[in-house]
Amino acid sequence: MVDPESLYTTIRDEAGTVLIGNEQVLEELTVSLLTGGHVLLEGVPGVAKTTIAEVFARTLGLDFQRIQMTPDLMPADITGTTIYREATGEFEAKRGPIFSNVVVVDEINRATPKTQSALLEAMQEEQVTIEGSTHPLPEPFMVVATMNPIDMEGTFALPEAQRDRFQLKLDVDIPERELEDALLERFDENPDLRADWVRQVVTASDIAAAREVADDAYVDPSIRSYILDIVQATRDSSDTAHGASPRASIHLLAASKARAAIYGREYVIPDDPKALAGSVLAHRLVLSTDAELGDLKPRTVVEDAVRTVTPPTHDEIRSAAAAVSDGGCPTDGDDAVERSDE
Q1: By three-state DSSP, how is residue 131 classified?
Q2: Three-state secondary structure along 237-252?
Q3: CA-to-CA distance for 81 and 79, rounded, in angstroms?
Q4: Contact 3/51 with Cβ under 8 angstroms?
Q5: What's the pLDDT score for residue 334?
Q6: In this structure, what is the dihedral angle of CA atoms 41, 44, 46, 48, given to the nearest 10 degrees?
Q7: For position 246, what pLDDT does the model report?
Q8: Phi/psi class of residue 46: alpha, beta or left (left: φ > 0; alpha: ψ in -120 to 50)?
Q9: Greatest Cα-to-Cα distance within the chain, rounded to the nearest angstrom
Q10: For residues 99 and 136, what is the distance between their CA atoms, to the nearest angstrom?
Q11: Which residues contact 219 (CB under 8 A, 6 or more apart)?
Q12: Which of 139, 170, 159 minimizes the C-alpha distance to 33?
């Protein structure tokens, strides 16, 4: 059975033949892959958002489609439609690009709200309705969308319901000077370097096996309480009109289990939800009027919420995990905890 830690390492190493300095983004993309989630990548033009999504998809070797969102795109261009076959005298469903394992939705906010809504059923139910008939999507299924935060002309804000369907929202920042210098050197040596240079390094069965391991990660009741306290703190904050939803709590729990598995642990520790809280919760918050006028960032609200909550201790979690598992906790538990703080 393929464990999540080796799965992520394999994906990261292969993606690193093209990408430089995006390990954190790749880690959280893997977290979503292991939990059946979807990811929104946000960043200014030129920071390789689409390349990251495509490279990640190609390492998986799954069926991959890219949808370039534009204002004139219609829902049927994504989901598909029915066509009349004169030879048979019957209508036949023509499936759209959404029927793929990994769907990269480029510049999602350039599509109209009507077209964006075509993704809702697919992302939540993993199925698509075409002319009254329901069609299941392939397994696994994952949407990776990109968005430019500075270009407002010709764009449409994502409705709260659409944002809430994304398990994680990841910020892709401009790299530091040393990383950008390494990037220039790589492209100087290989001017034609592209995402399709990446090889498939894992299989669908590898992903399924790693998902089982992540699903089995132990979650102590104190960790569940910790997650609920963080989510509640976003709701109680004076900076929010609406805090994180119950779906956010579920996504944070699942993501924490996957992160624990990626770090070689059989149990979740407080560092897991703490590390993922910003990515899972920030994009779901509706800020208060004063917070918006003060240009407060949603991630800052989440960071403040996390600081107000006291986490359970690592030792308590390890002891509880040992008590409920036949094999006990991992022998390298201390090292795993140390690594998770890096």
Answers
A1: coil
A2: CCCEEECCCHHHHHHH
A3: 7
A4: no
A5: 42
A6: -10
A7: 94
A8: left
A9: 70
A10: 9
A11: 253, 256, 257, 267, 268
A12: 139
CA distance 42 to 279: 11
Neighbours of 341 (CB within 10 A): 10
Which residues on neighbouring strands pair with residue 102, listed in sequence order?
A: 64, 142
What are the two backbone dihedrals, phi and then psi, of residue 121, each rounded to the nearest 5 degrees? Answer: -65, -40
The pLDDT of residue 93 is 81
Determine the 3-state secondary structure of 150 from DSSP. coil
> CA angle at residue 228 from 222 to 229, to 5 degrees?
85
* Domains of the chain in sequence order: 4-74+102-113+137-206 (3.40.50.300), 218-340 (1.10.8.80)
How high is the pLDDT of residue 127? 93
Which among 322, 206, 338 has a CA at the least distance from the CA of 266?
322
- Locate the DSSP E strands across 148-256: 168-171, 240-242
| Two tokens, residue 152 | 């407002």
Residue 281 is predicted with a pLDDT of: 98
**Which residues lie closer than 8 Å to 89 by C-beta, 6 or more apart?**
none
Could you tell me if 162 and 111 are in contact, meaning their C-beta atoms sit under 8 angstroms apart?
A: no
The low-confidence residues of the chain, meaning pLDDT below 70, are 1, 151-152, 324-342
Please compute Rg for the chain using Cα positions.
21
Q: Which of 340, 328, 341 is nearest to 266 (CA)?
A: 328
Residue 207 neighbours by CB under 8 Å, 6+ apart: 7, 33, 34, 60, 140
Q: Which of 218, 217, 244 is nearest to 230 (CA)?
A: 244
SS3 265: coil
What is the rounded distance in angstroms from the CA atom of residue 103 to the CA atom of residue 51?
13
Sign of CA dihedral 41, 45, 50, 56: negative
Lookup: tokens for 157: 């804000």
Of the candidates 154, 175, 64, the residue with the CA atom closest to the CA atom of residue 111: 154
Q: What is d(CA 210, CA 259) in angstroms, rounded to the nearest whole number?
A: 12
